[in-house]
């Protein structure tokens, strides 16, 4: 998928390993950019000895690498992914024809997603813009302490798409498990595009 930017010439690596390395590299670049958007993140790096000029240079490098990535399209179904350690449901696309973690694509800011139902009607189309506050609830076991996270359909989640109600966004991903027979249905089809340029 994205391995052409990093590891195509590394001998002895199979395609799955190359893709895993590339995904982690891309994830690290995105995390760095998010962490250094505000003064708090920059201050933490200054405490580690990085100057503002070095931070700005690293940000420019990260943005350049991400901008150079090729557009990649994945076809699959929406999936609500969680396991021990995820600390809540993560929204994902499960790729057609793949199994296990090889087929799992966790949605992240900037991904482009198109979702259709079994009739072909578009249920969502746009760039992913996580809202980390919408649906936020305090953890029941820690009242008054300010600890919590977003919640949707009674589940702890990481985020809701900007402009959506948490339960409505979550219902797209958990459709096969909904109790209301009017909303229940097969998994929704998805086309996930990495590195789609905004027009």
Task: List key phrases describing it.
alpha+beta; 3-stranded antiparallel beta sheet; 4 helices; globular
Helix content: 25-40%
Secondary-structure element order, as H and E? HHHEEEEEEEEEEHE
The tally of structural domains comes to 2
Within the largest sheet, what's the order of strands? 3-2-1-11-4-5
Separate helix tally: 4
Structural class: alpha+beta
Q: Indicate the radius of gyration in whole angstroms.
A: 19 Å
Q: Let me know the number of strands.
A: 11
Largest sheet: 6 strands, antiparallel
Question: What would the principal axes of the Cα set say about the shape?
Answer: globular
Which percent range describes the beta-strand content? 25-35%
Could you tell me how far the N terminus lies from the C terminus, measured between alpha carbons in angstroms? 23 Å
Return residue spans where pLDDT drops below 50 for at least 5 consecutive residues.
Answer: 1-8
**Assembly category:** single chain
Average residue-wise pLDDT: 86
């Amino acid at each position: 998928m994205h391995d052409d930017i990093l590891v195509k010439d590394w001998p002895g690596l199979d395609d799955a390993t190359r893709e895993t390395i590339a995904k982690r590299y891309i994830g690290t670049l995105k995390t760095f950019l998010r962490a250094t958007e505000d003064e708090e993140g920059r201050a933490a790096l200054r405490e580690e000895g990085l100057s503002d000029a070095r931070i700005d240079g690293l940000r420019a490098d990260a943005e350049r690498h991400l901008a150079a990535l090729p557009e990649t399209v994945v076809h699959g179904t929406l999936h609500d992914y969680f396991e021990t350690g995820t600390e809540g449901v993560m929204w994902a696309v499960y790729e057609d024809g793949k199994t296990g973690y090889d087929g799992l694509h966790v949605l992240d800011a900037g991904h482009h997603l198109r979702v259709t139902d079994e009739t072909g009607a578009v249920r969502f189309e746009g760039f992913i813009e996580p809202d980390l506050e919408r649906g936020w609830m305090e953890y029941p076991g820690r009242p008054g302490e300010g600890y919590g996270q977003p919640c949707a359909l009674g589940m702890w989640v990481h985020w809701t798409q900007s402009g959506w109600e948490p339960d409505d966004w979550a219902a797209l991903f958990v459709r096969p498990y909904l109790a209301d027979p009017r909303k229940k249905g097969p998994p929704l089809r998805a086309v996930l595009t990495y590195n789609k340029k905004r027009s």
